[in-house]
Fold this sequence. Notes:
Blueprint: E1 10-12, H1 24-29, H2 35-42, E2 48-52, H3 60-65, E3 69-74, H4 77-80, E4 87-90, E5 102-107, H5 119-130, E6 131-140, E7 152-156, E8 159-170, E9 173-182, E10 185-193, H6 198-207, E11 210-215, E12 222-227
Parallel strand pairs: 2-3, 2-5, 3-4, 5-6
Antiparallel strand pairs: 1-10, 6-12, 7-8, 8-9, 9-10, 11-12
Amino acid sequence: MSQRVRQGHVGTGRGSITPDGCAVELYERLPAGDEPDIVEGAVRAGADILELGSGVGRITHPLVRRGFSMTAVDESHEMLARVSGARTVCSAIESLRLDTRFDVVLLGSFLVHAAAPGLRHGLLETCRLHVKDDGCVLIQREGPGRHEDLPRERAVSDGLIRVVSSEPVRPGVRSVHVEYVFPDACWTQTFLSCPLSDDDFERALAQAGLVIDAYLTEDRTWVRALPDTA
């Protein structure tokens, strides 16, 4: 089964495909990695966390088990149907407007590199609108060389993730093609990504009323930002 996808985003393979080309069954197989550890180390224990783009709960579930109060947002009903132990909200991130603010807003999965006109600002504006003035926003950004030296692959669970290509499609925007190969199934995803220099990234945050507080990993892919209340 498939459904409408966002422009420039295409997914193939069995099962439901979300608007940004993600395969629901695939994301049920992917491990959480070190992301829950990064989040836990960056915020206070038991914080209320708004997770934007939660998917099937790959990170949500470990954080629930660690005592955080989670609200999971995704635009795919099929993804959210796999989430348990958290409040779920089906919505596009850029149009989300809840009547609650949170200790922590989490924007992972490199969503800050969205390439559609105005979308990045919409995502970051949603972060700023929903974080408490004394709270923080955790953002995952692309690491150096992500679009270079391809193809590149890594093992995950009993399969492989292979980044096949990253091709320019217009100034500042690249089309990335990824294959996910498992013994019993294969999926592909093609999506648009806008690489951001440090200056570009900080400028995008500033336009949404956020400032960098700290880089949380040595490769600077995880960032803690604070509301600019000045």
